[in-house]
Records
---
Amino acid sequence: MASSILKFAPNIPQTVSLKFPTGRHVNGHYGEQVMYSLESGSIMYVPIIVEKKLAELAVKKGQPVEICKAQENGKTEWQVSRAEDGHPNKKPQGVVQILNSSPSLDELWKEGEDKPGTRLEHALRTALYAAKEAEKYSVEIGHPVQFDKDDIRLMAQTLVINGGRERAA
């Protein structure tokens, strides 16, 4: 039975657990790479820089690691961190978790009906709903994504700014 290959889409972090702490060097279409077997049964091919970063972190078998193929302005940077480390001073909370701990989105809309809603309020609700649906879809396609409060804020700001531009046009 052939193993599935984990593909790294640009700017979408993937959490993986290595089946073995070391990989195997292979030559392929993209030159020399390192192949790792994952506990999920999949395999991944990554550049040698990822192998070096995994070694620097002293990643052990089964330890969750977050790998992101960050791309900006045509440049690629591979980011590797222990999944439990997260980002400094930033604990991501999934949109689904945020919505599950507060009233449902339908209840939020009803609360706003008695008073005039602002564009920002509408944009925040829209961003929350969009992020919730995007998280569900990302799990369905096997590339889980998780948004945090800063992502929601930025999405809402973008909606407000773009809404203002559309009205000015």
---
Amino acid sequence: MIKKLAALIVVPVAVLGLVVSLTGLTSATALDGTNTTGSTVGTVPQCAWHLDGVLGAVSLTHSGGGLYKGLDYAIGGSGTSVDSYVAPTSTTSKPASPGDDDCSWYTSQASAEVTISTDASPGFTSASFTSDTSMDFALNNSSHKLTVTVDPTCPVDWTSPAPGTNDIYTSHVSGIATSITKAATTTKSACSYVVTFAATVPSGKSPTHAGENYAMTGPTLTTTLVTSTLG
């Protein structure tokens, strides 16, 4: 009888221990905390096209050093290097070593086209003697023209003009020196070119002030950089 009673006492103790263990698990607590996030994001400047090096005046001279004698008289000269290039908007001169991270086109890059143009009736006129037109001559056709030769130093993604593309005469008063498409434009796109000029004072002129020097004013050429985000 005593042994049976002891067994009955053990069972409630075991059950009580199990209940206590379960109660301890369900009474756990959680601690909360918060933090904020942030960052400093550096940005590169906006890219832009630039054009440098267009001379204000180019003097054409006779290479032989002789004087006009009523025969064809060739004159010629050249400008300095003209640069069209991509750089940050505020840049004032062509970077010596442009880098990929110098600027960004952000939403869209732009194509570029450099044109050379003049007025509708190009020619040379005397600036030395008032109302003396005896040495004036017109650039009125492909045989009487200002030959404008563009010699580019550009990567293959730039177009180079064919001979005669930029020659100036009546009905042909503009041309394209160089161009690059929008798709080919990068943050380091750049092209340099030198322009040489040549013309001929035609034979048969009889200068009113023979023996004097005639300063001649030729056509004014305008170099324009045209950019576009279209296409």
---
Amino acid sequence: MVTSYEAFSVLLLLLPGIVGFFLFNGIADIKEKDTLASISWVVFFTIATQVISIQLFGAGYFPKIAGVTEVEAERNIYNYIQNLSYIPFLVSAVLGIVLAVLKNFSVGYWILNKVQITNRIGARQPWGAMFNRKRGVWIIVRFKDGTALVGWPEYYSDDDEKGVQQIYVQDAVWHVPTAKSETFVPDSSVTTEQISCGGVLLQDMKSVVAIEFVET
């Protein structure tokens, strides 16, 4: 039994915003983990959903479930849910997906970079920004001893809080120097042996000194 119809009305009102935020945060490469920021996003999605739904479809989402008696209020809740419009949920879902994609590709910062307002990037580290912006290209992971790993970056980590950086490289080929190398920079005098190995999960990046993005 509902004990507070005002609180329940607020919950119904926030539902589309919650749906939009969860989609947004689920798809975005950089997750929103701060509680206050998450609440702010839910409020934003709620308001944006209301405005867009009303302006484009004339289908707002304002619960009116109060009643003179408890029985009447419960009947209003039942009728309201039975006739619930899917439009605000659809609008919020689409909005969440679109904003997540824009965030993943740092579109906002890309525009600000182009007009020379700032050189900042949307990601907390260049790591995430580069892997997002350079999608669809092969990489060369270079190690301190001159070894190189060439392959397709199938997955990469995004744990910015703990600084965890891992890569899963598909269609990988190791290029191992046949003689001792003093630097990771390719030396024409040192030949390498190529070893194909399918997929490689790089869990420890301490020996990695550079990652090249191969653009053809």
